[in-house]
Amino acid sequence: MSSSSSVKSAARNAARRAVGKQRWRRWLPDLGLSGDTPAPAPMDARTLYALAILLLLVQLPHLLHLPLWVSLSGATLIGLRLSLLRRPGQKLLGRLLSPAGVTLLAIACALLIKLDYGYFIGRDPCVAFLFILVAAKFAEVRRPGDATMLLCLAAFLLLTQYFYSQTILAALVTLPAVIALAHALAVLRDPENPAQTREQLKLVLTLLLQGLPLAALLFIVFPRLPGPLWSLPEDASATTGLSDSMSPGSIGQLSQSDAVAFRVEFDGAIPPPRDRYWRGPVLSEFDGRRWSVSPRLLQARSSYQGPAADIIDYTVTLQPHHQRWLFALDAAVSLPRPDLRSNRPIDATDAASDTQDNTAQTPDRSRDDSLRIRHGKPLGRLMSDGQMLAGNSVTQLLRYRQSSVLLDTRFASRQPPDNTLFLPGVNQRSSRFARELRDSVQSDTAYAQAILHHFNQQAYHYTLQPQLLGDAPVDEFLFDTMAGFCEHYAAAFVVLMRSAGIPARVVTGYLGGEMNDDYMIVRQSDAHAWAEAFIDGAWRRYDPTGAVAPSRVEQGLSAALPGDAAVPRLARLDKGWSSNLQLRWDALNHQWQRLIVDFDNDTQDGLWERLGLPKPELWQITVIVLALTGLWCTLVLGVPRLTSRQGSPDERLWQQLCELLRRRQLLREPAETPAEFLQRATQAWPAQARRLHLLQGHFSSLRFRALSETEQNRRRSEVRQLLRRLRWSLPRGAWQAAGDESEVT
């Protein structure tokens, strides 16, 4: 008994193992882990090639900001999948591109991306990983459902390029990918359609152009959200532009770039070049070589009480620089606010809101002005040292309204902090020289002028390539090299002022700007440093660079340097045709940014006000959109022909086919039988012969055969599907030559 029970138990265990093994083997082929793993199931070659072209066009805009190995990996996966399509017998490649193999490749790429960037949760590594995932999905695509998911992923990857650039060029690069996306969708929807790619692309372009007015309508009237749909953690991107510190040579290096820092649109008169001091970071801390921003800053309010006519209103479009400071003409008398313009003048409510926001009340302007600053929530704060700070780092294009007055003196309500007098004691020769020079004059103002006179009369030179300085950089500059850029002169001036017991600090920003049509371009080559000294209860601006190279203040960087200096091309006075062409392109991009990219909820409200219309309610917008959409569809598609609804369902289907062919200019003759009519249609469109024969068979069966109700419904459903595909596939007017030839024959 014991032996028989043990035999039965062993048999039951063996049966369980066999069932488990069968279940395991059932899943293994799908995972690609079994020994006899087949290659991915063959998919229609036309669909795969359409998807491959789409992915290459989607990947193209990302080549500029992704690591080279990521771009090569994505392109390699696409190439391997196409190679497997042409030679499906490659077992090793089939296993590599199995779901399991592709998953392992994706995990390996994720680890490499983490090692390359140093982090994974952020804009750049996430876009790189999505780049790999899209290519990996193409490598293992098997079914139409996989292809549909791939289309969605490709569309999302295409949109991610706007994380980096929103220029016209970015939109133009997107256009071929959008066309390829529509073409791939058409091929996937009807892979048996024998129409040529050229005909399908023509149809896709027609549909896109027909939908363009509707897209423009929705762009203008669709309600905007007050903020973005999502946000990403800030990437550890390298900062561009001015830094929060300055050492000898730092601004000189920045001035060799002609990249745009920001653009400015003035409401009225444009300040002369010598008054275009764009205030940025204020550097009060000094360790003997390096100047840096003070960590102890207080929020302040403007104390300007002068005439309103002196106030300059303008709009700044700031490029992302991954720092917090905002730029304004010296001195700012308002907080930076969103660009909201309307015909409504500033009233008492606006002034009160300014006061509540801890800023000065902006003086009233004339109510005859055509454009006014409409106050919104401030985008930044005005600090006690005169610089403006945003709430967060500027990581994307920022457009704000600002008001300033041209002042070189800022009266202070409190005494300067101690760090504006601190000297580490490493520049002893400068301190001795400062005490001797201060003893020779009667006042602090005369002392500051004496320093400027010293720079002007001695053999100092303004150069982009100064000599390297050692541990006492100010001493070596003042008494040894006597050649430097703006940061050398500003730092030396502040050290000399502090040595005489006068509070002083370095101010960095930009000086100048170039007009391009109706707006000004301020470039990195306009970066500048000057000094401020606290004399007679006010901070007064002193620019020692102007004492050495007055043309730098009056005409710009190029005028102050010799002709063989390494001045950026767009900063030169003698611009060639290529520079002028680049300026025209910049003007076009500026209008694109202002009218399209910056069209947000506030701009939309201002548009309604400028049109003299109240802001519509949501139901009104819905009615307007539906009415205009219906009107446009009627104009594009025409008024539907009212066909007779009499007769059986089969007769109505036949009437739909006749109407479809009539729209393609193929008319049925009065004495022509249905079979003869469809035979003539087959001669007119040989590429659609299969579908027309199927239709003839279905109509014959429905008319002459005794079919069950279920079979009749099935055939009618197939007829409707064939009619939809014919409506998509039949070209307009292309049958005539073939039809005429058949009649002659």
Give a description of the structure.
By secondary structure, the protein is of the alpha+beta class. Helix content is 50%, strand content 12%. It has 26 helices and 21 strands. Strands 1, 3, 4, 7, 14, 17, 20 and 21 form an 8-stranded antiparallel beta sheet that branches. Strand 18 and strand 19 (519-523) form a beta hairpin.
Task: Name the descriptors.
single chain, 745 residues, alpha+beta, 8-stranded antiparallel β-sheet, 6-stranded antiparallel β-sheet, 26 helices, 12% strand, elongated, disordered C terminus
Write a brief structural summary.
The protein is of the alpha+beta class. It contains 26 helices and 21 strands.
Q: How is this fold's topology laid out?
A:
Elements: H1 2-31, H2 45-59, H3 68-86, H4 91-96, H5 99-117, H6 123-139, H7 144-159, H8 168-189, H9 197-221, E1 245-246, H10 250-254, E2 260-266, E3 277-286, E4 291-293, E5 312-318, E6 325-326, E7 328-329, E8 337-338, E9 341-342, H11 348-356, E10 372-373, E11 380-382, E12 388-390, E13 398-404, E14 409-411, H12 428-439, H13 444-457, E15 461-462, H14 473-481, E16 483-484, H15 486-499, E17 504-511, E18 514-516, E19 519-523, E20 527-535, E21 538-542, H16 544-548, H17 550-554, H18 557-560, H19 577-597, H20 601-610, H21 618-637, H22 649-663, H23 674-684, H24 689-704, H25 709-729, H26 736-744
Parallel strand pairs: 15-16
Antiparallel strand pairs: 1-4, 2-5, 2-19, 3-4, 3-7, 3-17, 5-13, 6-12, 8-13, 9-10, 11-12, 14-21, 17-20, 18-19, 20-21
